[in-house]
Each structure stands twice: as C-alpha cells, then as structure tokens.
Amino acid sequence: MELTAREIDIGTRSPTVLVNSDDAAELGVHPLDRVQLAWAGGRGVGIVETTDELVPAGELGVTRRLGHVSGTVEVTVAPHPDAVHYIRKKLDGIELERDEIDRIVTDIAEDRLSDIELAAYVVATYTRGLSLAETMHLTQCMTNAGHHLSWDVPVVADKHSIGGVAGNRVTPIVVSIVAAAGVTIPKTSSRAVTSPAGTADTMEVFCDVEFSTEEIREIVAETNGCLVWGGGVNLSPVDDKIIRAEMPLSLDPHGQLIASVLSKKRSAGSTHVIVDIPYGEGAKVADLNAARELADDFVRVGDHLGMTIECAITRGEVPVGRGIGPVLEARDVLATLDGNGPEELRLKSVRLAEILLDCCGREDVDATEILRSGRALATFRDIVAAQGGDPDVTLDDLPPGRHETTVSASRDGVVTHVDNRLVSDIARRAGAPRDKRAGIDLHRRVGDEVQTGDRLFTIYAESAAKLSDAERLQRKSEAVRVRTRDEALVEHV
Amino acid sequence: MELTAREIDIGTRSPTVLVNSDDAAELGVHPLDRVQLAWAGGRGVGIVETTDELVPAGELGVTRRLGHVSGTVEVTVAPHPDAVHYIRKKLDGIELERDEIDRIVTDIAEDRLSDIELAAYVVATYTRGLSLAETMHLTQCMTNAGHHLSWDVPVVADKHSIGGVAGNRVTPIVVSIVAAAGVTIPKTSSRAVTSPAGTADTMEVFCDVEFSTEEIREIVAETNGCLVWGGGVNLSPVDDKIIRAEMPLSLDPHGQLIASVLSKKRSAGSTHVIVDIPYGEGAKVADLNAARELADDFVRVGDHLGMTIECAITRGEVPVGRGIGPVLEARDVLATLDGNGPEELRLKSVRLAEILLDCCGREDVDATEILRSGRALATFRDIVAAQGGDPDVTLDDLPPGRHETTVSASRDGVVTHVDNRLVSDIARRAGAPRDKRAGIDLHRRVGDEVQTGDRLFTIYAESAAKLSDAERLQRKSEAVRVRTRDEALVEHV
Questions:
Q1: pLDDT per position as a tens digit, B352-391
Q2: What sort of enzyme, by top EC class, is this (chains A, B) (predicted)?
C-alpha cells in the first residue's frame, strides 16, 4: 500500500508509525504489528499504532526515530522480529540458546521491540528464571552490545553495590584506599533517580564527573583511579532499556541483575570486582540465604567471563553514614578520609577495600593503615584535582543548606530503627539530589539511648518551601524509631 | 513542580505526558511512572515519558487523552495504580481475589495502565494461569465494564467460534435456522483483521451491519434474529485493550479467552450459547484433550454466570466451506440455505443449530427440516431485508472478482491437505476482505482423487495487480497438497 509520509512530533523509544484505522484494516495490521517501509532514499521497519483522528487515510505518521522519511512510502506487512519468537519460547519455560539470547539483546539494543514485547521479556525472565548458562550468555551478549574500555594493566579493580541503603557512600573511600595502594580502579557511578544521592551526585560536590573516555584515561594514568559518571561512557546501553520495563513493575530478576552488573563491569575493562549485597528488612535482598545464592551466582558468572568476583554480604536495614544528600554525604566522605567520620562508614569502607585488594593479589596491603596515614585522603585529593576540583577542600567549604530544622526525641528510650526509605524520601522532599546542600544529618544510631528532647536528626534545605515540604512528611512518619527497652522487644499495635 | 502545558500531537492509548529529562530527574520520576497533574480547570494522572529534545525544561507535553490541559500545571509524583500491585502479585504466583481482579479490569478499562503493565498482566495470566475462580471473577468484572443489551424473552440463543479455520461461515446459517424455529438469536459478529473475512464482512455483502442498539432491537423483534457488527455496540471494551497485548506475542491464555468470550455473550444478554472449538494441526487448539479441557471450563464458568453453555469440538485442520473471502463465503451461505452449497458447511451448520436448539429446550425442532423446507432461507431473507438489503438476492447478484486464475494439479494423486493459513493469506493478497469479491474458491476437498490438470482452486481479485500478488504467494507455497497414496502416508523430505 502506498501512503504519504507526514512527520509527527512524538516522544518514542521505538520506531512508531501512525496508520489510519481504515488503512490498517486494509493492510491487515493490528497495533504493534511491524510494517516494512520503503521510500525514495531509505528503508526501515516501523511499529504500527492505529488512529482514527491524528492521521487521515492515505497518510502515514512517521516519528523521527525512523530518520527523515518523506514523500510516498510503500508500506507492506513485515514479520515480528526473531526476538519475539524467542521471548515466546522463554514464556513457555524452554531454556534459550546463546544465539537466541543474542537476538533478543540485539533487538533490544536497536529498539526493535515494542513495550509489550520488552515487558514480556522481563516478565519471562522473572517468572521462568534464567539458568546459570542463560545468565552467562546474557551477560556476554549485553557486554558485546556496549562500548568497551581497556587498560594497559593486568589487574583492574572495581566495586558495585546492588543498592537500596541510604547514606551508603563507601565508594569514594574504597576507591581512594585501593588507588593509594597502587591498584588501578577506574570507577564509573550513577546519578540518583529515586534516591537522594548517587555517588556521581556526591562527587559532583567536589569536582566534575562528566568526562570522555580519553579524559578518563588521563585521570586514571595520573591517580590510579577516578570517580566519574558512567552515563557518559555508554557501557551497557541495553541495560537502560531493560530497566525501563523493570521499574514500573518493581521487578529485578536475579539473573537479569547479575547480567546487568557484570556486563557493565566487563565493558569497563574490570578484572576484579567486589559486589556489596546489602540484605535485610527494607533492602533489595530480603534475607541472608537469598543474599548468599545471589553471591554464588555472581561469582560463577564472573568466573565464566574470566573475572574475579568477590561478594560482601552486608546489613542493609539502616543507613550506613550520618549524611543523606550530596553535600551531607560528601562531608561524611571527607571526614572519614581525614580520620573522623561515622564509625560504620569507615569500617565498611575499609573492609570492602581489604577484600578487593586481597582478591587483586595485594594481601600485603593494610587498608586501615592507608586510611589512618592519610594516604587515602591524599589520593582522593589527587583525584579531585585531576577531575577539575579544589584539592584543598575542607569541611568548611561544604556547608549544608541554610534552612534547617532539627527533630528531637519525644520520649526517653532507645533508637531501635532508622528507616532507609523514609529518610531518603524526606531528604528528597528537602530538595536532594538537585539541591546539593539539601538532605538529612542523622545524630543518633540504632542502639543509642536517648532522652526526651535529645536531637535525633536535622533536615537541611536550600529553600524554606522545600524544608516545609520535608517537615510535613517527617511529621506524619517515623524515620527514626525510639522505643523503651520493653517496646523494642514487643510492640503492641 | 510547576510546568507549562504544551499540547503534543501523539497517538496514544494511555494518558502520556512528555517531561524533559532534567525535570524528570528533579521530580525523581522514571519513564512510565505516574504524575498527578493539577491545572486551572482540572486534574488528572499522566504516565511519564522522558525526552531530551521534544519538550524543553519547564514545559510539559500533554496528549489529548488527558483533555484540554493548558497554562501552568502543578506536577507531583503519583503512586502506581493498585492494579500494578495485583499484577505483581499474580506474577509471583498468588491467586487474586475478586476485588483485585476488579481493580485490574477497571484500570485497563480506563486506560490507566502503560503497555509494560498491560503486557505484564497478560503474561502473568499466561505463565501462571488463571484458576477457575479467577476466570469466573474476571468474566464477571469484564461484563460489568461494558454496555449491556437486554431482551424481553427468557431464552436468548447465541453462537461463538474461537476461530482460526478458513471458510467457516456457519453463523448466518445457524442463526437463520434457530430464528426460523422461533428462538431469539441476536448475533453480533466481528470484522476480519488478519483473516480474509469475518461474519460481519460476509453479511455486508447482503445488507448493512452497523446498527444502534435500538435498531438491533427492531430487527430482532421482526425476525427473531440479526447478523450485525458487534463493534458498534461496545459490549466488552476491556477485551479490545487486552487483545492489544496478546496479539504481538500470539498469546491467548485459556482463562482470558473464556472470560473474553463469555463476558461479551453475557453483556449481549445471551442465556444459551454454543461455542465452536476447532482443534487440530494449524488450529488454535492443538489436540482433542486440550479442546475438551477448554470446553469443560467454558461450561463451568458459564454455569457460574447463570448461562447454559454447550461446546462443539470440531475438526479445524482444513477449511469448512468452498469459498474464502466475503462474496465467495456469501455465495456458500446462500447456496447452503437454498439446499445446495458445500456438504461440510451444511452438516456443521445443522449440527451446531441442533445442539443450540436442544440446549434452549427446543428438542422438538428438526433443524435439518427447517433448512430443507426453505424456512431458514426465508428467515435469512427477512433478516437481510430488516437490515436494509435486497431480500430477493440470488447467486447471480454475487459474482466474484472479474480477474481470476485457476490453479490445477501438477500431478495425479489425492488431495491430502488444504492449508488454512495459506489459503487465507492468498485470499488476503488477492484483496479480501476490503475487496469484497476477492478470495478463493476451492474445487476439491481433502480425500478427492485428482489427475494432472484437474482444477484445484480459483483465485479471484478485483484488480490485476492484486491477482498477481496472490499468484506470487501461491506459486511459492502449496495451499492444496496433492500426493500419491504412498506419499500421503510417508512423506520423504
């Protein structure tokens, strides 16, 4: 059928074409079927949406995703991409071969799947699971689909946390210790989307984080490490597309998680990786057994890819540091590197650095000593300088937001819980991560005894309006739980 | 966050809003998250898509689905609809309660789900299955979501085929016999989308098929029956939305199928329904056991709804009538009603009518006699007249397309198979269902002996170009298989 192309202003990930319902009936296509397009100067495959109004019969609404389509277009029915057959196969519980997984990954990478098909893929891997062999193939295929970094050294260290814990800003400390020990650790991190700060947001308090591959090489050549935003490097483009379907359903299938993390690490050229797996109430992994299973599979898939993976199973119910929000976490990082800072943040960072150094064959290194001696701080300052920041930065340069309110204990008792989700939500209401100085500073830890009127935490904001917003949420929730010893054991509801 | 609304031209089923990536990060929303919108004059919930280009920071691209949104819009994060939680629950293999199914159906009916969520629902019902209780609830909830017809008689007969068989145009014959027997049978049918003709397309050869509910009442009052297009009556709007997600994946989950069919029948006010379940190679149901299971569940769910359901399990490997395409099928229907026509079409129609009349308590009626005596033909002519057609129509008024080509046997042997899919595809290439006179006329049935040069089938088209198209497909395929007796048993490939 011949139709006349008409450009339409539509934000779409996939190559949508709008077809009038009458033309669709004549072609015999449903919404989400594929059509082959041929026009003077090009060819392409579009995914059909039908309309009664937006496009009149005889015309074809074409989105920019398909390039500049103009004039007369010959439209014929095209088959579904191969990936759809394999997704269907997986839905039926049949294990996929390597080349079938490769087709799925390629079709996702090139945006050939509709949301319906993408969701079917994610749901299939969730309800049917991925075998170890499938996870290995998937990791390899996802790695192949992205850009790659390579380094001229045999050992490249890296670190990943599966996330979900507030104030868990160990990365800049771990990187500084490991780099100070002479091990290459080019760390790429994410920005926050639903949390009050990602490592990239926190590092941006000190210096730039967006660099080209070539610039990253120079920073690492100078300092052994870097702390940059990974979004600029495009290491696993497929991952972002799969996340699109996982997020709305809050699905994070085990095999898919491993493939996402390890394909990124592999693309980044990492050879030795420590994976932080926080578990417990409110964390992504509910219990110790599930954490151990996940850890085992991380190690096995890594092994298959020729990578050395070590996993640290950590307590994830409560925040690690005191600060929550970019500047407040940056203060924790700087204080810890300077010999102060929150105890748990220091202990966890040192332990992760030790495990990572050990697996890199550097059992000789004393991570505690590197931190204590100030060598980690010196390396951190070198990285900050190499990334265009002020190497002489002090806590005085990092004041939190000037609007603040402090929440106090309304009774005597013991702090029994600090809610990851709630402190994150309050910090976000206060403006984090966009308002770098916004967030929360926790004054008490779980187990601390408090008396009525003792300070529990302070909320900081850059504007009075956002502070009020955060206070409203604070008042109707209980981010820091104080109970008497009795109540802590038995809570009568 | 306050954004300025900007209308965008986009064809979408769901209430999409386009948000600049920077604003999305500040709000903390991912693609497909929900946002609450409040503007002077209205409120609504939008589903987020992010863009770097199409909408600048500070603006909000709004589709027409949300109504007329203009000026400043206050945008806040909104929770996922409840349905998403229940879909997630079903994905985890947990049986849903009635009110949870109700939420899902309502959210689908009101287009509150994104394609990702809709696909997750369909895939969940496919991989996890629906229990009989869930299927009953789903049928009831889908019934509640649509328009209803009601009739002033205690017995309202109806008929449905789950489809997939070419030339299976029994409906006009069954309706004519049943209506002639004095039983009310207000039949709504679909148009073809991927097949060469639906019952509505075939009836349109004789008369109009699009009527209002009031007009349908008048036709049925006059003739006991009707043969109209169901799309105009909106009996199960949820069904069309669910089909959107089923089609691309070729999924047709058992429980969902039952709920779709019976909710439509219930909404149409039907009390006694015969369901035709064709099975076999190439049909929707692969074998006799699967057909029996499906039939049992149809009966049970119908019983729960207070409907009497009878199922006919029929052979579905090969076409039923001779003609494929609106006019060619219309010719078969008229010839059969007139005492001629293809043997299988006549036998199947009479048998279905008998079963249906029996379950309506009309064991006294002799369906064969009603057909033989011409009473069914007279009733059919009454219905055609009531629907604005020519009651005196003859086969001479129904010539097939003037461009034709006849395919002959290239060898001596026996017809061993007629491929439903291929004859349908060839008929579509020839122009069916849009070109009413296009299609195929089969001259031989399975089991017929043929000699080289004997006519196997004729392709008809309204244009020479479409005939060539159909011939091309015909030449590279084998729609009608001729084998020697030996080969028919053992085919050496």
A1: 999 999 999 999 999 999 999 999 999 999 999 999 999 9
A2: transferase
> Which among B11, B25, B88 has CB closest to A54?
B11
Which architecture does CATH list for B403-489?
A: Alpha-Beta Complex (3.90)
Tens of pLDDT, residues A212-238: 999 999 999 999 999 999 887 888 788
Are A453 and A407 in contact by the 8 Å Cβ rule? The answer is no
A152 annotated active-site: no
CA distance B493 to B482: 15
Query: What are the chain A neighbours of B88 within 8 Å (beta carbons)?
Result: 249-251
pLDDT band per the 50, 70, 90 thresholds, residue A9: low
Verify whether the Cβ–Cβ distance B55 to A124 is below 8 Å: no
Which CATH number is correct for B82-144, 1.20.970.10, 1.10.8.870, 3.30.420.40, 2.60.60.30? 1.20.970.10
pLDDT in tens, A336-391: 999 999 999 999 999 999 999 999 999 999 999 999 999 999 999 999 999 999 99
CA distance A88 to chain B (A): 7
Mean pLDDT of A96-117: 92
E-strand ranges in A363-427 read: 403-408, 413-418
Choose which CATH entry (2.40.40.20, 3.40.630.30, 3.10.310.10, 3.40.190.290) describes domain A2-78. Answer: 2.40.40.20
B249/A49 CB distance under 8 A: no
Tell me how far CA of residue A89 lies from CA of A27, A97, A128, A284, A373, in angstroms: 28, 11, 11, 29, 58
Q: Judge: B54–A127 Cβ closer than 8 Å, yes or no.
A: no
Q: Where are the domain boundaries for CATH 3.90.1170.30 in chain B?
A: 403-489
Query: Which chain A residues contact residue B18 at CB under 8 A?
Result: 11
Q: Omega before A433 cis (within 30°)?
A: yes
User: Å from A201 to nearest chain B CA?
Assistant: 12
Which range (B30-34, B197-201, B254-258, B448-452) has the least confidence?
Answer: B30-34
Whose CA is closest to A134, among A312, A254, A32, A12?
A254
Of B25, B124, B248, the CB nearest to A114: B248
* B17 residue type, one letter: V
